[in-house]
Specification:
The protein is 4% helix and 49% strand. By secondary structure, the chain is mostly beta strands. The protein starts with a strand and ends with a strand.
Length: 114
């Protein structure tokens, strides 16, 4: 059973910042594209950002310039740095690893509210 362990969610005011972390098993981290998806009430799940094993990145337009995805291969961990957070960023954020198959984390709640 592959486990992706997420951390870093919470409540933040608009304009604030958070950093999400996702630790993955070494056996998959080096070969899989790692990403973050989010699911907000009443909306479809969407890809927020992803990073390939060769550090190519992709972002949804709504977070470009505010969010940064990165990976630390020594720690088998992918990060999502979220700056200038907006209320519309409120969602459950899920870590994802994909290559031949996909794996998902348990989700972490991010709430942006004053």
């Amino acid at each position: 059973q592959v486990q992706l362990v997420e951390s870093g969610g919470g409540l933040v005011q608009p304009g604030g910042s958070l950093r999400l972390s996702c630790a993955a098993p070494r056996s998959i981290f080096s070969s899989y594209t790692m990403g973050w998806y989010r699911l907000a009430p009443g909306k479809q799940r969407e890809l927020v950002a992803e990073i390939t094993p060769t550090d190519r990145t992709n972002y949804v337009d709504s977070v470009k310039g505010r969010f940064t995805i990165s990976r630390d291969n020594a720690k088998n961990t992918v990060y999502l740095r979220m700056n200038s957070l907006k209320p519309e960023d409120t969602a459950v954020y899920y870590c994802n690893a994909k290559w031949l198959v996909q794996y998902w984390g348990q989700g972490t709640q991010v709430t942006v509210s004053s």
